[in-house]
Design brief:
The protein is α/β, with parallel strands linked by helices. It has nine helices and five strands; from the N terminus they run βαβαβααβαβαααα. The longest helix has 16 residues.
C-alpha cells in the first residue's frame, strides 16, 4: 500500500498536487492547517474538495499559535496585502515559520499512519519570494525530519520547477483544470475562483492561466518533459 500525506490548503497549487496524488497512491491523506489566516474560507473549501475528490482521510489541525507569533498581512486584518517588498526584501504576506511548522506536523502525521511521503505545492520557479518555498529549504527540513524521527520519509514537491502556466498544464493533464479554476481559493483576500484580481497571488495565478490558454500545446509539452 502506497500512502502519502498532502499538505492541502484548498488553493490552486495544493489541489493540483492532491489530484495528482490521487492517481498515484493507494491512500491519500490530506492535512489542512487552520492558523487564523486572513482567508479563513480556504479551510472550508479544502474540506469540500477533499470530500468531493475522495481522499482516504482529511485532518484539519488548529495551529492558531502561529497567528500569535507571526505578524503578516495573512495573519492580521489590519495589514493590507501589498505588492511592495518590505525592507527585508520579502512580501508582507510572508508568514515566518509557516512551512517549517506545517511540514513538521505533516511529518509527524506521516509517521503515525506509516506514509512514505509528504507532498507540498511549494515552487521556486514561479513564486512569491518566500524563503520557505525554496528547494534547499525543503531538502534541509527533509533531512532533519528523517534524523529526528529515525524514519525514512520523503518530502515531494511536484511543482518546484514548474512555471505557473505549467502548473495549469498539470491540472489539465489530470482532468481538473475547470475544478481548480472555479473552486479553489488562492486569493490573499479570500475570494474563490478568479479572486480579487489585485493581490500578488491573483496576479500570478491569472498570468499563468493566460499563458497556458494562449499556447496549451507548448506548456503541456513543457510540463510533460519535466515529468520524465
Amino acid at each position: 500500500m502506497k500512502k502519502t500525506v498532502v499538505v492541502f490548503s484548498g488553493g490552486q497549487d495544493s489541489t493540483t498536487c492532491l489530484v495528482k496524488a490521487l492517481k498515484e497512491y493507494d491512500e491519500v491523506h490530506a492535512i489542512t492547517f487552520d492558523y487564523g489566516q486572513r482567508h479563513k474560507l480556504e479551510v472550508e473549501i479544502a474540506q469540500q474538495l477533499a470530500k468531493e475528490l475522495g481522499v482516504t482521510a482529511h485532518k484539519v489541525m488548529d495551529v492558531s499559535l502561529l497567528n500569535e507569533l507571526a505578524i503578516s498581512s495573512l495573519t492580521r486584518d489590519n495589514i493590507a496585502v501589498s505588492h511592495e517588498l518590505q525592507d527585508n526584501g520579502l512580501p508582507n504576506s510572508f508568514v515566518p515559520g509557516r512551512n517549517i511548522l506545517f511540514l513538521t506536523l505533516a511529518g509527524i502525521y506521516a509517521y503515525q499512519i506509516g506514509a512514505e511521503s509528504i507532498i507540498t505545492g511549494v515552487c521556486e520557479t514561479d513564486f512569491s519570494g518566500y524563503p520557505d518555498c525554496r528547494d534547499d529549504f525543503i531538502k534541509s527540513l527533509n533531512q532533519s525530519l528523517v534524523l529526528g524521527m529515525d524514519r525514512k520519509v520523503e518530502i515531494l514537491t511536484p511543482l518546484m520547477w514548474l512555471s505557473k502556466a505549467e502548473t495549469w498544464a498539470m491540472a489539465d493533464h489530470f482532468g481538473a483544470l475547470e475544478l481548480i479554476r472555479e473552486r479553489t481559493l488562492t486569493c490573499y483576500n479570500g475570494i474563490p475562483g478568479d479572486g480579487c484580481g489585485d493581490c500578488p497571488s491573483c496576479d500570478l495565478r491569472r498570468a499563468g492561466l493566460e499563458h497556458y490558454l494562449s499556447d496549451k500545446e507548448q506548456y503541456m509539452n513543457s510540463f510533460l518533459s519535466k515529468q520524465r
